[in-house]
Amino acid sequence: MDPADIEACFAVRKEVFVVEQRVPEDIEYDGRDGDAVQVLAVRDDGLPLGTGRLLYGPGAADRTGGDPAVGSLGRLAVGAAARGRGVGAALVRAIEEAARGRGLTVVDLHAQSHALGFYERLGYEAYGPEFLDAGIAHRSMRRAL
Fold first, then answer.
1. Fewest CB within a 10 Å sphere: which of 12, 17, 72, 76?
2. Using one digit for the tens of pLDDT, what is the confidence trace for 22-70?
3. How far apart (Å, rounded) are the C-alpha atoms in residues 9 and 25?
4. pTM as predicted
5. What residues have CB less than 8 Å from 116, skipping those under 6 apart?
């Protein structure tokens, strides 16, 4: 991705997480983006619609239990105008494909509790108790690739 693509990813994340959900910027921008695989969905005219990222390897050990075969899907965000059009599902599948391309066999994620059904429809299974992240209820979820 070029710098303009990264800025587009950040713009979508700011719209969804910082503005809509009121996540503090210092939590949203956690310093891991440089090591992550970023995905970006854009409209035909280049307008950014959604984004997500894949963390893997040693930098993701706190999310993957240190298992080198597991990747961590995160920061999945779709702008309000693009929701309900399959953008989120396409982003998840693109992240899964990136994980496969890096030899990963499992994708783990921390889903906001209201989004559990979305991820379940994509084959993810929840595990463990609900927990708060940035003041928002989440559950851990996992899918074998």
1. 17
2. 999 999 999 899 889 999 999 999 999 999 999 999 989 998 989 999 9
3. 14
4. 0.94
5. 126, 139, 141
